[in-house]
């Protein structure tokens, strides 16, 4: 027994209280301490990296992984509930960047030592550093950085006369899809991915959902009720009404979009780099023709305004170290190993999750597996994060409530009603 | 009964069978579909495969499913045992003794049975995390008693009322000691009722979802229904539909076996507790 | 219109001591009774009364778990926030809609099933009885997944099987709107709980005196007349018990919604609303207030049934 707690069956509650507060029992039997790493579901990459780092530590620690739920909100829920219970068994967490501020503000993240903060931010793309920063302090270790790009079918773009070597706009994409009667994939489901989409649109239109963040909820300056918010809503509605989205658009997630673009009606999808890994896997399993794979192209996210560069969505994972962990130093040591250049390259090529270290994009091996790496890197440099606020979960909750389903948003009223609801929820005057 | 009438009853019986078993057949069918076959739009798989079962029993999802299965069995059995033990004493008192407060106990059981679970979860979550019961077995066993205990008391007291207690005295008259009379006469009469109650209580605990998702967060205590919602596919690129269906089939097997073995008793238990005098 | 019921039989109280005198024997019996039933009674109180009292207390605070330092007493304002919010009323409306639809359908369908089973040949009865227990015993979450997969636009077969129904096609997105989502949720609930109702009603049917049926037959009453004048009035108690249990059970609907829609498209029930405030948002104060309100709703409903319909559960089971 190394990483599981001992449990007394049917014992008295008191004994079990003790047992439940017992953690890191690995040290009891003389073996190396076990670090628990809570990971988001992937294709096995993080488990492999955990094994590699355990090996590399030369017996200093052993990392065991536990998988969190699929949805970003579910991941936050699981972690924050445990941390609110001051759970010492959480050593390392794979955190979605928008939730970092909340965790940091609540005191759930161990302080990052200054020297380590310098080391893990050197050579890292700016967006990933921003995501791991709260109140001008690096509070988490940037691991990998994600961004959405525009995946398209070369044959469709050609037929529609769309020059993909130049930046394209949403209007052009919609028009091209309509002229060729192909699908546009976006994330219309009531989930975090809807906020990702809206935030990308608002940022690309030159605005921000939160103009100015603050510790106190009443001091937050909201930015949806603006020309940028209106324009973003307009595009969301135009996509939903284009007639070129899937029949189940209001429940479509990233996976549905990825499957859509490789389908017979595939055209365009704004989506993460994993689309490429997915398509390759399908070809290997015989579920997809090589010809389709060869037809897939990638470009930077569509622009809202033809003359303004897009601000594509930024995602990825930061490694937070639990404030109540009994092995904080070792956990930081492990985090530094996890985010090493080598591991990032491995993760990129096998799981399709891009690196946060800029140098990885120049790795010839990476380029061979991911010919789109330069596009991804360009996108990462343009990308804008989602609002950083300890109240992010409320903000995204309101967005998901007010902007779902996308086919019913109204550019002239939804941004206003969403803003009003955000204010009321932040002030505690309304439910969410 | 005429031949024609007979045929109609058989048709009606078959219709009920289809009604009851169709969704089960469907989930079994989904569990046998390969990932690429899931969207075939048909009821049956094009080619049956056990890939989903491999995924949850030996593959990537086994660390999610197997501990959950163990937790579910352990927690539900313990909760059932405790509530049956408590209910046994209470039901004996209600069925055999005359004391004021009988009605109070039965009414309390009724109120507890209709209690909205979510109203209990909110405060429990807060208390549990303070005293360290969050995400532990007892942290689920204790609230499960609110589900299993009331139904156990009702069902068992209905069973116990039908026991001819005079036989105990008769046995004592015949020279048996009190203990012998109890063991030889009462225990065999009471055992079926206790056993049936245990099955019904187990079903109820096995079915819980709200406590499971609210009061746990790791495989230390997470029961199967809560784990079902957390499955992901073999990779992040696959829908978890197949593995969920396979896991759903596996957790349905125990209840189906219990139903097939003890159907007569279960029906008696369910209806006795609620309706019969 | 007259209904035919047998006059109530006087219940004999076999063992009670005469009123007024408390003999040693009855005192000892009382003590023993409480000693035996007391632990169960205390446990029931501990797992319900205590939490709801705690919830009532917590509901008076503004208290967010990620911001524990700013916990502050704010009286009844959480209740005001909830009751003045559309979200609460939408959730309440959805909950009542689901309750009314499922309970009504289940009652009718359950009665039909019970009638069939009552007359069924004894040779196939065990098979049918085992089958009918299966929906009851299947985990609600499993049933919810089965129905969700069946109606899902990608994995389902419903769209291809029922394309001949106007309005259903390969592109019908059942979980894309409120009405269709609720329909599927109701179907799943109905499938799962009708068997339980039918078993209760079957037991009730068995209690209808055969004499009355025969007498009505002799009088030339039609099957329909016998149903309304003899059968139903005589099983009123069973119907009411089934109705009460199922209504209060349906009012707590949570699992199916969580699995199928996760509350999207205005399909949120009151239980789901409470869950989200406490467990997802960690707003302990607001969540507790929703919980208390839900509890009050259930108490109110139960009260309505017991007073309004005069369902006396104790007497229904001869408890007197």
What features would you describe in this structure?
The complex is a heterotrimer of chains A (432), B (277) and C (320). With 432 residues, chain A is of the alpha/beta class. Chain A is built from 19 helices and 13 strands. Chain B is built from eleven helices and no strands. Chain C has 320 residues and is mainly α. Chain C is 68% helix and 1% strand. Chain C has helices at residues 24-58, 77-83, 86-119, 125-137, 140-151, 158-161, 178-206, 210-218, 223-234, 236-250, 255-260, 270-280, 284-308, 313-316, and strands at residues 61-62, 72-73. In chain C, α1 packs across α13 (284-308) and α2 packs across α13 (284-308). Chains in contact: A-B, A-C, B-C. The interface between B and C is large, with 101 and 105 residues.
Notable characteristics:
heterotrimer; B: mainly alpha; C: 320 residues; mainly alpha; two-stranded antiparallel sheet; 14 helices; 1% strand; disordered C terminus
Secondary-structure element sequence of chain C? HEEHHHHHHHHHHHHH
**From the helix content, strand content and strand pairing of chain C, which structural class follows?**
mainly alpha
Strand content of chain C: under 5%
Shape of chain C: globular
Count of alpha/pi helices of chain B: 11
Helix/strand order of chain B: HHHHHHHHHHH
Helix content of chain B: over 70%
Task: Tell me about the largest β-sheet of chain C.
Answer: 2 strands, antiparallel
Number of strands of chain B: 0
Ranges of chain B with pLDDT <50 over ≥5 residues?
none
Largest sheet of chain B: none
Topology:
The complex is a heterotrimer of chains A (432), B (277) and C (320).
Chain A: H1 13-21, E1 34-39, H2 45-56, E2 62-67, H3 72-84, E3 92-95, H4 100-105, H5 114-121, H6 126-131, E4 133-134, E5 137-138, E6 141-147, E7 149-153, H7 154-159, H8 170-180, E8 183-185, H9 192-204, E9 210-212, E10 221-222, H10 227-241, H11 254-261, E11 266-271, H12 274-284, H13 290-295, E12 296-299, E13 314-321, H14 328-338, H15 341-351, H16 364-369, H17 373-382, H18 392-402, H19 414-426
Parallel strand pairs in A: 1-2, 1-3, 8-11
Antiparallel strand pairs in A: 3-13, 4-5, 6-13, 7-11, 7-12, 9-10
Chain B: H1 3-31, H2 51-57, H3 62-96, H4 102-113, H5 117-131, H6 137-161, H7 166-173, H8 178-207, H9 210-214, H10 224-228, H11 241-274
Chain C: H1 24-58, E1 61-62, E2 72-73, H2 77-83, H3 86-119, H4 125-137, H5 140-151, H6 158-161, H7 178-206, H8 210-218, H9 223-234, H10 236-250, H11 255-260, H12 270-280, H13 284-308, H14 313-316
Antiparallel strand pairs in C: 1-2
Helix pairs in contact in C: 1-13, 2-13, 3-7, 3-10, 4-7, 5-7, 7-10, 8-9, 10-13, 12-13
């Amino acid at each position: 027994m190394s990483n599981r707690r001992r449990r007394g069956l049917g014992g008295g509650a008191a004994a079990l209280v003790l047992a439940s507060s017992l953690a890191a029992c690995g040290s009891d039997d003389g073996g190396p301490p076990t670090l628990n790493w809570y990971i988001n579901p992937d294709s096995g990459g993080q488990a492999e990296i955990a094994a590699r780092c355990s090996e590399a530590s030369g017996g200093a620690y052993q990392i065991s992984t536990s998988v969190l739920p699929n949805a970003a909100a579910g991941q936050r829920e699981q972690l924050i509930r445990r941390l609110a219970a001051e759970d010492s068994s959480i050593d390392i967490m794979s955190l979605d960047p928008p939730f970092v501020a909340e965790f940091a503000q609540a005191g759930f993240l161990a302080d990052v030592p200054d020297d380590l903060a310098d080391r893990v931010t050197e050579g890292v793309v700016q967006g990933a550093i921003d995501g791991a920063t709260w109140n001008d302090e690096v509070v988490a270790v940037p691991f990998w950085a994600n961004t959405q790009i525009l995946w398209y079918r070369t044959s469709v773009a050609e037929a529609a006369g769309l020059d993909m070597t130049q930046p394209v706009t949403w209007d052009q994409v919609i028009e091209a899809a309509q002229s060729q009667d192909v699908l546009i994939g976006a994330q219309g489901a009531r989930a975090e991915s809807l906020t990702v989409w809206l935030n990308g649109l608002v940022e690309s239109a030159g605005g921000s959902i939160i103009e100015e963040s603050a510790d106190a909820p009443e001091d937050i300056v909201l930015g949806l009720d603006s020309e940028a918010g209106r324009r973003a809503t307009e595009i969301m509605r135009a996509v939903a009404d284009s007639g070129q989205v899937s029949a189940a658009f209001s429940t479509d997630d990233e996976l549905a979009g990825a499957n859509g673009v490789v389908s017979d009606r595939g055209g365009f999808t704004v989506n993460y780099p994993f689309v490429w890994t997915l398509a390759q896997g399908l070809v290997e399993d015989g579920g997809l023709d090589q010809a389709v794979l060869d037809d897939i192209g990638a470009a930077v996210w569509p622009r809202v305004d033809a003359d303004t560069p897009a601000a594509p969505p930024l995602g990825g994972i930061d490694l937070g170290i639990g404030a109540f962990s009994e092995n904080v130093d070792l956990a930081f040591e492990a985090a530094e190993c996890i985010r090493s250049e080598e591991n990032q390259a491995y993760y990129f090529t096998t799981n399709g999750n891009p690196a946060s270290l800029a140098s990885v994009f120049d790795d010839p091996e990476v380029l061979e597996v991911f010919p789109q790496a330069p596009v991804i890197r360009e996108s990462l440099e343009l990308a804008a994060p989602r609002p950083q606020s300890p109240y992010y979960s409320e903000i995204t909750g309101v967005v998901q409530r007010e902007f779902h389903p996308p086919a019913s948003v109204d550019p002239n009223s939804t941004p206003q009603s969403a803003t009003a609801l955000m204010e009321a929820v932040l002030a505690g005057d309304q439910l969410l | 009964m005429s031949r024609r009438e007979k045929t109609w009853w058989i048709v009606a019986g078959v219709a009920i069978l289809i009604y009851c078993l169709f969704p089960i057949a469907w989930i079994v069918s989904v569990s046998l579909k390969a990932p690429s076959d899931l969207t075939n739009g048909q009821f049956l798989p094009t080619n049956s495969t056990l890939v989903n079962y491999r995924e949850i029993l030996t593959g990537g999802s086994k660390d999610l499913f197997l501990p959950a299965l163990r937790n579910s069995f352990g927690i539900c059995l313990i909760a059932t045992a405790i509530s049956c033990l408590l209910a046994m004493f209470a039901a004996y008192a209600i069925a055999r003794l005359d004391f004021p407060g009988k009605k109070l106990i039965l009414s309390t059981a009724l109120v507890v049975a209709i209690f909205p679970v979510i109203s209990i979860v909110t405060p429990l979550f807060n208390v549990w995390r303070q005293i360290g019961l969050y995400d532990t077995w007892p942290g689920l066993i204790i609230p499960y008693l609110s589900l299993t205990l009331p139904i156990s008391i009702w069902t068992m007291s209905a069973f116990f009322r039908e026991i001819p207690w005079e036989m105990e005295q008769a046995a004592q008259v015949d020279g048996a000691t009190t203990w012998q009379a109890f063991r030889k006469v009462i225990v065999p009469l009471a055992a079926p009722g206790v056993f049936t109650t245990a099955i019904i209580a187990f079903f109820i605990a096995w079915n819980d979802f709200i406590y499971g998702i609210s009061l746990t967060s790791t495989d230390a205590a997470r029961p199967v229904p809560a784990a079902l919602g957390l499955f992901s596919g073999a990779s992040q690129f696959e829908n978890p539909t197949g593995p969920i269906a396979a896991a759903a089939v596996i957790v349905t097997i125990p209840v189906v076996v219990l139903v097939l073995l003890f159907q007569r008793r279960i029906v008696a238990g369910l209806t006795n507790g609620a309706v019969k005098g | 219109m007259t209904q035919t019921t047998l006059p109530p039989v006087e219940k004999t109280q076999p063992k009670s001591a005469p009123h007024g005198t408390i003999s040693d024997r009855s005192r000892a019996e009382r003590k023993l009774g409480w000693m035996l039933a007391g632990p169960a009674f205390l446990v029931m109180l501990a797992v319900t009364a205590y939490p709801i009292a705690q919830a009532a207390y917590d509901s008076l605070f503004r208290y967010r778990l990620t911001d524990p330092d700013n916990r502050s007493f704010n009286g009844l304002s959480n209740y005001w926030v909830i009751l003045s919010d559309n979200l609460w009323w939408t959730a309440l409306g959805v909950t009542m809609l689901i309750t009314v639809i499922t309970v009504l359908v289940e009652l009718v369908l359950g009665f039909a099933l019970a009638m069939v089973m009552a007359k069924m040949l004894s040779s196939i009865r065990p098979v049918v009885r085992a089958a009918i227990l299966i929906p009851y015993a299947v985990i609600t979450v499993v049933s919810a997944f089965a129905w969700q997969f069946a109606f899902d636009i990608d994995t389902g077969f419903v769209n291809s099987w029922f394309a001949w129904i106007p309005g259903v096609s390969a592109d019908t997105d059942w979980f894309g709107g409120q009405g269709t989502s609720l329909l599927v949720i109701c179907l799943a609930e109905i499938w799962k709980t009708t068997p339980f109702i039918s078993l209760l009603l079957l037991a009730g049917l068995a209690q209808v005196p055969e004499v009355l049926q025969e007498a009505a037959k002799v009088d030339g009453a039609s099957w329909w007349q016998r149903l309304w004048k003899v059968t139903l009035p005589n099983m009123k108690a069973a119907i009411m018990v089934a109705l009460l249990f199922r209504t209060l059970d349906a009012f707590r609907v949570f699992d199916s919604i969580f699995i199928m829609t996760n509350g999207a498209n205005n399909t949120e029930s009151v239980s789901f609303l409470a869950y989200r405030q406490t467990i997802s948002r960690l707003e302990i104060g607001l969540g507790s207030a929703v919980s208390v309100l839900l509890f009050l709703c259930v108490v109110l409903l139960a009260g309505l049934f017991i007073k309004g319909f005069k369902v006396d559960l104790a007497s229904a089971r001869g408890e007197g």
